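Key result, reporting period 2: structure in, sequence out.
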């Protein structure tokens, strides 16, 4: 069903693009094929924006029809709707009343977004900006960290890699003219220096974590095998006492494995 829906949307988009392309050709666009495609796409975007903007402003509030921060309000509404829907669907009163669940999940975030002030909206958006900067900023460091510890088991090679990384960030920090960029470069450089000093400890911790993952995977397979053996014994034709004896032994083994995994 999802594939058919996506295919239908793509087909509608293609048809609208071709219609606008033909319109641009016959209306004397004269800018070539690339211009006509861009013009046709712009017409489609303008059509949907002009059509949906009054409805969205009527729902999400606004002093006029400029639609300022309207798209941001829509995104926050979708986030709130998703969390409220997930939270309410586990409540017994909404379990058998999905229509009521959808209505409540739609109205509650709508009330919060419709009457939210610009200052609070800007505060929420600022937090997402900080989150994006933090995630995007830490990704290169983590990639380099796991690259060094996966590419070589030699402490010397990894330390040379950390020194090279620190030197690059030092020159970035020394040459930048933007204070905020300089702070990020400086802190990244300092954290990298700490990882340089603790390279051996960090590498052993990562190796230990990999061993634990492998051990837990083996334990999970052993637990699954014990569960299958218990089910096989219960379905067998052995006497009841013999079944209880075998199952009791298997249960002890199962408890030992669970304790080891924890």
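The corresponding designed sequence is given below.
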């Amino acid at each position: 069903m999802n594939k058919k829906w996506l295919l239908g949307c793509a087909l509608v988009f293609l048809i609208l693009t071709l219609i606008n392309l033909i319109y641009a050709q016959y209306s004397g666009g004269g800018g070539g094929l690339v211009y006509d495609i861009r013009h046709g796409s712009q017409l489609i975007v303008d059509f949907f924006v002009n059509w949906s903007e009054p409805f969205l402003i009527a729902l999400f509030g606004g002093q006029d029809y400029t639609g300022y921060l309207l798209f941001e309000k829509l995104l926050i509404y979708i986030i709130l709707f998703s969390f409220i829907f997930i939270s309410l669907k586990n409540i017994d009163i909404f379990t058998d009343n999905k229509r009521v669940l959808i209505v409540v999940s739609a109205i509650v975030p709508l009330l919060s977004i419709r009457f939210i002030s610009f200052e609070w909206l800007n505060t929420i958006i600022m937090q997402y900006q900080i989150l994006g900067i933090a995630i995007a900023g830490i990704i290169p460091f983590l990639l380099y960290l796991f690259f060094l510890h996966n590419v070589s088991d030699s402490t010397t090679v990894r330390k040379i890699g950390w020194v090279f990384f620190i030197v690059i960030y030092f020159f970035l920090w020394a040459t930048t003219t933007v204070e905020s960029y300089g702070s990020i470069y400086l802190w990244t450089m300092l954290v990298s220096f700490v990882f340089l000093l603790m390279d051996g400890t960090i590498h052993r911790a990562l190796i230990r974590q990999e061993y634990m993952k492998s051990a837990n995977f083996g334990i999970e397979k052993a637990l699954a095998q014990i569960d299958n053996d218990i089910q096989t014994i219960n379905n067998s034709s052995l006497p009841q006492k013999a079944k209880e004896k075998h199952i009791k032994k298997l249960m002890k083994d199962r408890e030992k494995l669970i304790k080891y995994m924890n």
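The chain has three domains: 2-120, 133-197, 202-261. The radius of gyration is 30 Å. This case is discussed further under Risks and Mitigation.
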